[in-house]
């Protein structure tokens, strides 16, 4: 009961931020979806998770520009490279897709560009292969999300 009271008090105090920041994430994902096709659903999902990090957790290290853009570049690269590995069976495909995720985590941690949603980007590109249009959309979307984060950060509150 105390937890519910605490959450209600926080929501009552910050309700405008909850609404505005959620609307900002909504608009960001809307524009990303306009740029991608439904066949790129895994990529769209990872960018939706990025929108959550940027707008709901703006002070988190994963919301930094370096992490958002760098993480998605790492995910794009790892996934695209993994897609080049031949995999004729379901077992082989599972191994390749897992390798894309694992290698993206390793490289993000080593390069200090940790951004958990970017491992979804690695998985998506491993599954669908490199697509220039989708790659440009991911890079553009991560730059736009980082730009909005930079501009609006003074007004964004930590919502989680």
Describe this structure in words.
The protein has 160 residues and is mostly helical. It has 6 helices and no strands. The chain has one domain. The longest helix has 34 residues, at 2-35.
Cα-to-Cα separation, first versus last residue? 19 Å
Order of helices and strands: HHHHHH
Structural class, by secondary structure, is mainly alpha
Report the average pLDDT across residues. Answer: 91
Task: Based on Cα principal axes, name the global outline.
Answer: elongated
Supply the number of helical segments. Answer: 6
How is the main sheet built? none
**Stretches where pLDDT falls below 50 for ≥5 residues?**
none
Rg over CA atoms: 17 Å
Total of domains: 1
The proportion of residues forming helix, as a percent range, comes to over 70%
Strand content bin: under 5%
Strand tally: 0
